[in-house]
Automatic annotation (TrEMBL), chain A:
It holds the Pfam family GATase. L-glutamine binds at S45, G218, G220, L247, Q250, N288, G290, Y291. This is Carbamoyl phosphate synthase small chain. The lineage of its organism: Bacteria, Bacillati, Bacillota, Clostridia, Lachnospirales. Composed of two chains; the small (or glutamine) chain promotes the hydrolysis of glutamine to ammonia, which is used by the large (or ammonia) chain to synthesize carbamoyl phosphate. Tetramer of heterodimers (alpha,beta)4.
UniProtKB/TrEMBL annotation, chain B:
Its cofactor is Mg(2+); Mn(2+). Mg(2+) 1 binds at Q284, E298. The lineage of its organism: Bacteria, Bacillati, Bacillota, Clostridia, Lachnospirales. Transmembrane segments: none annotated. It comes from Pseudobutyrivibrio ruminis DSM 9787. Mn(2+) 4 binds at E834, N836. Residues 1-401 are annotated as: Carboxyphosphate synthetic domain. The gene is carB. Residues 932-1066 are annotated as: Allosteric domain. Its EC number is 6.3.4.16, 6.3.5.5. This is Carbamoyl phosphate synthase large chain. SUPFAM superfamilies: Carbamoyl phosphate synthetase, large subunit connection domain, Glutathione synthetase ATP-binding domain-like, Methylglyoxal synthase-like, PreATP-grasp domain.
Amino acid sequence: MKAFLILEDGTVFEGTSIGSTREVVSEIVFNTSMTGYLEVLTDPSYAGQAVCMTYPLIGNYGITDDMESGRPWPDGFIVRELSRIPSNFRCKGTIQDFLVKHNITGISGIDTRALTKILRDRGTMNGMITTNEHFNFEEIKPKLQAYRTGDVVSKVTCQEKTVLPGNGKKVALLDFGAKRNIAKSLNDRGCEVTIYPAHTPAKEILAAEPDGIMLSNGPGDPKDCGPIIDEVKKLYDSNVPIFAICLGHQLMALATGLDTHKLKYGHRGGNHPVKDLETGKVYISSQNHGYVVDTDGLDEKIAVPAFVNVNDGTNEGLKYTGKNIFTVQFHPEACPGPQDSGYLFDRFIKMMGGEQ
Amino acid sequence: MPKRSDIKKVMVIGSGPIVIGQAAEFDYAGTQACRSLKEEGIEVCLVNSNPATIMTDKEIADQVYIEPLTVDVLKQIIIKEKPDSLLPTLGGQAGLNLGMELAESGFLEEQGVKLIGTTAETIFRAEDRQAFKDTMEKLGEPVAASLVVNTVEDGIKFTNTIGYPVVLRPAYTLGGSGGGIANNQQELVEILTNGLRLSRVHEVLVERCIAGWKEIEYEVMRDANGNCITVCNMENIDPVGVHTGDSIVVAPSQTLGDKEYQMLRTSALRIIDELGITGGCNVQYALHPESFEYCVIEVNPRVSRSSALASKATGYPIAKVAAKIALGYTLDEIPNAITKKTYASFEPMLDYCVVKIPRLPFDKFITATRKLTTQMKATGEVMSICNNFEGALMKAIRSLEQHVDSLLSYDFCDMTDEELNEALKVVDDRRIYCIAEALRRGASYETIHNITKIDMWFIDKIKILVEMELRLQQEELTVELLKEAKRIEFPDSVIAHLNGKMSEDEVRQMRYDNGIVAAYKMVDTCAAEFDAMTPYYYSVYGSENEAVETKDRKKVLVLGSGPIRIGQGVEFDYCSVHATWAFAKEGWETVIVNNNPETVSTDFDIADKLYFEPLTNEDVESIVNLEKPDGAIVQFGGQTAIKLTEHLMKIGVPILGTKAEDVDAAEDRELFDEILEQTQIPRAAGGTVFTAEEAKEVANRLGYPVLVRPSYVLGGQGMQIAFNDDEIEKFMDIINQIAQDHPILVDKYLQGKEIEVDAICDGENILIPGIMEHIERTGIHSGDSISVYPAHTISQDIKDKIVDYTERLAKALHVLGMINIQFIAMDGEVYVIEVNPRSSRTVPYISKVTGIPIVDLAAKAILGHKITDMGYKPGLQPEADYIAIKMPVFSFEKLRGAEISLGPEMKSTGECLGIAKTFEEALYKAFLGAGVVLPKHKQMIITVKDADKPEALEVAKRFEKLGYKIYATRSTAKYLQDGGVDALQVNKISQESPNVMDLILGHKIDLVIDTPTQGHGDKTRDGFLIRRNSIETGVNCITAIDTAVALATSLESATTEYTLVDVAKI
C-alpha cells in the first residue's frame, strides 16, 4: 500500500506503508546509526517523534532481545528499505510484524537521504505519515504546525517502583523513559537499582537513603517537565551523589537555574565525538537529543563544563561545583552505539564510595 | 597535542613493485601521506623501487629514490640524506619489514633516526605470531587455538592435539603467501614445508580452523593521546577460509546486530590501544555465525588494502590522517577533509552500501587453479556504491572488465543438478554466479547456506536479482518493472537481452521517456548530517539528484582505467592522475570516473569531481547527461577508456586529442596497412582472420612461426606464437572463448631486437623523450621484457629510422597527444610491430628517468600548445646521463598451476627500476629490486630447447666462472660438456631419484634456466613441472636465454656500494 510522508513545509515523500496504516502526526527526526534500529525503536526518548534511519538497509537481523524497553515508542518509523528476510541466529521475527503488533506506523521506500538533508537544512519539523492518497495539504498544515511532543515523560515512565537486586551500592534510578541498559550497567556493577516512576517526590526517594541517584534519559522538551524539575532541585539540595544522562542532565541544569534550547536538528546517532575536558581525551558517543544545555556565561559557582561536542562545540556534560553531581548529554549506556564512555558508570560508583 | 617540533625530514618507504597482495593501494596511501606531510612543511625523502607510481613523482616528495628496497640500500640512503625520522607504515608489509629490520639492527638509533607512526615494539607484537598471541591473551581477546612452529614435525604434533583441518599462516609474508588450509597430514606437510621456507623468520602458525565463520574487519585509528575511533567495519560475504583480498566484501557489515557490532568494535579499540599504535590499524575477526564467540584473526599495524577500501568507502582519508598523527597531531585537531566543519575524531556513518569484488587473474592464467584459499590471488579490485546491496553488487560485477555484466554471465546451464550441487562446494571466483544458478533451479536458501556458509541475507539478495531476471524474461517491460530493475542496477543491455524483444537503445529510450535516470548522491562521511564540501558521487535510481551541474569553466571528463589487472597496472592510474592535474593547471574543471578503490585517481581531492562508477557505456552516459563535459580524455586510461570512445562520440562528447577514427586506423588491420603503405614503413607480413581455417591459410602462406592475436586488447591478451596448424587451432579456440567483435591478426613472427618509444605529437611536431630497447628478443611481451633506456646497443642509423618512422606514423595517424610504438630491429632494418595512439605502461618510467613530464606535455599538446612553446626542441631528446632499466616482476608463486614461461601474452604484475651510471650496475639493481638476490648456494640447473643450446653454452660458461655448479638434463648436459662446461647430468623427473625435482626441492638451487619448447603449458610435461616447482620453492626461474645473459652480466658486476640517484633532481 502506498504511504505518504508530508512535512510541515509542504514536502511530500511517497513510499510504501509498513507496520500500521494508522495516520500519525509527529516530529520528524533522523538517526545516523548503522546498526541498532531495534534499540532506537525501543528507546523511550523517541516518544512523540517519528524517526528516520539514514542507513538505508533496515531489518537485516530482524527482531531480537536487544530492546531498551518493553515496546517501540516512536510514532512513526521511516526507512529506505526493509529487508525481505531477517538473518541472525537470535532473530525472533521481522520488523514488519513488530510494527504491526505495536500499532506503529511506518513508511519505506522513500529517499531518506533527501529527507535528512531537508531536516538538516531547515531544522527538525513536524510531519504526517498517512496512507490517504487524497490528502489536502492545506487542511493538514495547521495540524502539523500545532503538533507538540508535550508531556511525553508521563507517557513513557514506569507506573510502579521496581527493584533490581544487587549487593553493592544502592542506586535510585529516576525513570524519565530510561533505557534498560542504564539499570543493567549499574546492576552489572553490583548495584541494587530501584527504579522510580518519573513523578516520584524527592522526599520518597531520599527517604530510602540511596547511595546515589541516577537521572535517566527521556523524551521531549525538558521545559515541559516543570514539576519534575522542582523535585530534581530537591535532589540537588540533598548531598546524595547524582549521575544524570540526557534528559536527566537537562533537568538538573534547569533545576539549578541554567537554560536549555532546541538544536536545529539534534544529535542522533552513534558517532558523535565528545571531549572529556579534564583529560582532553575524545570519546565516540551514542547520542539522542534535540535540546541542549546553554553554557554561555555559565556560573562556575554552579557548574563547569565537563564534556564538549568536538563537532559543534555544544555542551555534553557538566560537573556541579561543590557537589557530587555530574551529568552528561550523551549515552554512556550505549545500546545502540559505542561503549567507549561506559567508564562513567564506574566513575559514578566511585563517587558513591564504591570500589569500581 | 600540536605537531612535534623534532620532525623536519621524514623518510617514507614505499611498497615496491606491484605483486599479488601488494598493489596500487600503497601508491594511494603513500601519495596521500606524502602530500599530507608536505602540507605540514615536512621535507619528504621517498624510497620506492616502483617507477610506475605517483608517489615517486618529484611533485610528491622532495627526494625520490627509485632504488631496490633492501636494508643495504636504505642504509646508504639514510646516510646520504640524513632524515630525522622514518615512517614505515605506508609501504605495506614490505615497508614495515624493512623498517623493522633497520630498527632491530640498531642502525636507526646509531644514525639518530626516529621510527614514527609506530614503534618496533608495536610491529613486533602485532606481527610476531607468539608475541601477538601473548598480547591477545593478556587482553583476554580470544584467538583460535594455535601454535607457532619452526619444523614440520612440530606442526604435525600440534595438529594431532587440536585436530584437522588447520589453517597455516607463515609469519611476515604478504598476501598470506604460502598459507593454506590443511585437511590431512599430507596437505599439512606440503603447505607447511613451503610456508616455512617463505617466512622471513621461518615461522608458521598452525591454527584451529575456523573456516565458515563470518569474517569481519574493523579499520581503527589511534593518536598519541590514546583517542581511538573506528573508520568503518566490513563484512566478507565469503566466510573465513578465503583471503579477505579475494573475498567479496561489503561495508558496513550487514548481518550484525548492534551487540555484535559493538562487541567487535570495542575489542578492536582495546587491541589498538594495547599495541599503542599511532596511526591506522586493521583488525580482522572471525565471528561464529550462531553465537557471540569470536576470534581475532590478525592485526595489521599499518595502512593496508583494507584501509584503502575503507577510505574510499567512507570518505575518511586514513593515510592522510595517519601521517598527521605520526607528526604528533591528535584526531580532534585534524579537520575532516570532506565536511571541512568536523574533525577526524568521529566515526563515518554511511547511508549507502559498498561492495568490493576482487579482480582475479584467471583469464590470463588459464591453467592456474581458480580455487580461492587463504593465499590471495587477486591482482586488484573494484568497488561500487549504491543505496541497496543488489545494486552495489550489480555495479561491481560490471566494473570488473571481465566480460561479465550480471549474474548470468557464467553459464552453468549444461550442468546437471548434481553437478551444480558439487560446483557449489567449489570456492572460486564464480561462486556467486553458481549460487544464482542454483537459486534459478529452486535450491533452498538452507541448502546453499549449508554448503557455502554464506549468510542467508546475502543469498536472499542474490535471489532478488534472480527473480528480477525471470520477471524481465517473462513479463512485458512496464514502466514499473523497468524502475524496479534499474533500482537494483540492471544495465539496459541486460534488460534488453532478457526481454528479448527490445534493443538496448529502446530500453534506454523508454527510460528517458519516463524520466528513469540515474541520480547522484554524495559520499560525505556523515550520512548527510553535515553539509559536505567535497563532490564525491555515486549513482542510484529512484532518488533525488544532488550532484550539481557546474558550468563556469571548460570541463573535461577523465576516464580511469578500472581494476588493476595484468596488462593494465598502476601506470595508467599515474597517467590519468597526471592528465587530470595538467587539465586543472590549464584552468579546466576536471571530472574523474573510475571504480578502483586502490588508486590515487579515486582519492576525492585529485579532480574537481569524482564519480565512483563502473566504466561502461551506460554508466558513463548517465554522467555525461548530467555533467555535459566539453570533452573527454581517453588516451590515458588504457584500454578501458579507449573502449568507451565510440559511445562517447555517439552521445556527442568530443574526444580530446587523437580522434577515434585515427585510433581505429591504428587498430584496424586494413586501415593500418594503408597507413604503412602510405608512409612506406615496413612491418611483418600478415593477415586478418576470423576463423581457424582462415588463420591456417594465412599462416601457411607466411610460413611458420606466426604470431596470433586479437585486435583491441592490452597486455597481449590471447597473443601466442604458433609453430604449426595444430597450435593455430588451439589458440583460435582459446581466443574465441571470449566473443570477438574485432578480427584476429596473424603475422609472420620476426625474431629481432625489440624497441619501444613513447612520443608526444602536437599535430606538427613530435617529441620523443627517449628510445627504449628490450633485453629479450621479440616474442616476449614488452611488459614482461627487461627494458633499457637509453637504447645502447643500436646504431645511430637505426635510431634515426625510429625517430623518422615515429614522426611519420604520428602524423599519418593525426596523433594529438600520446603515441606508443613498438619496433623490431633486424638485419639493419626496422619494422613496426604495433602502434598504440595512447599512453602506455612505459610513460611513468620514462618520465621519471628523463625528467620530462610526458603526460603534462601531452595534455598541453591536446589543448593546442606547441612543443616548441613548451620549451622543448622537437624530435628525440638528448639522452640522460643515467642508464635506467625497467624489470618486470611476477607473482607466479601465488598462482598454483600457472604457466610461468614468458611469451607474447603479458604475465607480470608489476615492475621495478634499476638506475645507475653504468649498464651493469643498473641491471644489478633492477634484478635486486625484483627480489633476485644471488648468489646463495651457487648451484643452478640448465635445461633448454635445442635452438637455445649454443647460447646456453655461453651463459653456462659465464655462470661457471662465477663459481656456479651447473646441473643439466641429459641432452643439455651433453651439449654443455662438449662445449667445455663441467656440467653434471641429472635425471629427468620421470626417471629415478635423485632427479631434477629432488634437486629443486632440496633447497640448494639458486637458479633454474628452462627455456620451454613451446610457449604454453602442458601441465604434465617435465618443463612445466620444473618451472612450477622452482617458483613454488622460491627458486629463481628464467625462461628466456636473453634474460639469463642479463643476469650473468648483472652478477659479474655485483656491488654493495650503490650509486644513489635522486630522480627528483633529474
